[in-house]
Amino acid sequence: MKILYFASIREKIGHAEEEISLPPSVAKVGDLIVWLQKRGDNYIHALADLRAVRIAVNQEHVKLDYPVADGDEVAFFPPVTGGSR
Amino acid sequence: MTVRVQREDFDIGVEIAAIGKAGNDVGGIASFVGIVRGGTGADAIGAMTLEHYPGMTEKELSRIEAEALERWPISASLIVHRYGRLEPGDNIVLVVTASRHRQAAFEACEFLVDWLKTKAPFWKNEETADGGKWVDAREADDAAAARWSKKD
């Protein structure tokens, strides 16, 4: 599974992407976040406030209860701020 | 129906002229150009850098465009969104819609602008005296996007 991080979440975690083997405990996006948070303070800090975290699986917006599988591309990022202000 | 994500600037006149030639059923063209706003005093904005999610950005903009096409009788549309470093006065985004009649073109254009602001994966990082600062999403943008949500 490929995991991507963007913008402020990328800065807090410290890298833009990583490849992981899907852990047995992970069935949904929410499980993946719990698993990632056990990996270090940088993950806890970056994913602490889930109201400020947006998720995409295979480049589509999804919610925490969306299922994930090995081979998926999962991305975590803050609320988007494109367009003009 | 075209979507482009690019570092380079765009020529508004050239883009609108091309949409006008998209078919012989075009009766009106609406457009929106977003530019980097400057400002003075505490509110002053210097340059900014736009980061995006290559691949998803194009897909999301295409999905938004497809949604507009489903809701309004549009003959042609174009979304061009820039990324990279931009300065006050620079173009950020161009949305153009063409239709037989003006109302569909106006409404579809506004819809595209509202939806791309809350759905397309772009993030602005402003240059300040203290270094880069990520721009927070605005609740007003969510409200603007939500008014286009379909009622069940």
Topology:
The complex is a heterodimer of chains A (85) and B (152).
Chain A: E1 2-5, H1 7-13, E2 17-19, H2 29-37, H3 41-46, E3 54-57, E4 60-62, E5 73-77
Parallel strand pairs in A: 1-5
Antiparallel strand pairs in A: 1-2, 3-4, 3-5
Chain B: E1 2-6, H1 12-20, E2 28-35, E3 48-52, H2 56-71, E4 74-82, E5 84-86, E6 91-99, H3 102-119, E7 122-128, E8 131-134, H4 139-146
Parallel strand pairs in B: 1-4
Antiparallel strand pairs in B: 2-6, 3-5, 3-7, 4-6, 7-8
Helix pairs in contact in B: 2-3, 3-4
Give an account of the 3D structure.
The complex is a heterodimer of chains A (85) and B (152). In chain A, 26% of the residues lie in helices and 22% in strands. Chain A has helices at residues 7-13, 29-37, 41-46, and strands spanning 2-5, 17-19, 54-57, 60-62, 73-77. In chain A, strand 3 (54-57) and strand 4 form a beta hairpin. Chain B is an alpha+beta fold. Chain B has one domain (2-146): Molybdopterin biosynthesis MoaE subunit (Aldehyde Oxidoreductase, domain 3, Alpha-Beta Complex), CATH 3.90.1170.40. Chain B contains 4 helices and 8 strands, in the order βαββαβββαββα. A 4-stranded mixed sheet of chain B has the order 1-4-6-2, with helices on both faces. In chain B, helix 2 packs antiparallel against helix 3 and helix 3 packs across helix 4. At the A-B interface, loops of A face strand 3, helix 2, helix 3 and strand 7 of B.
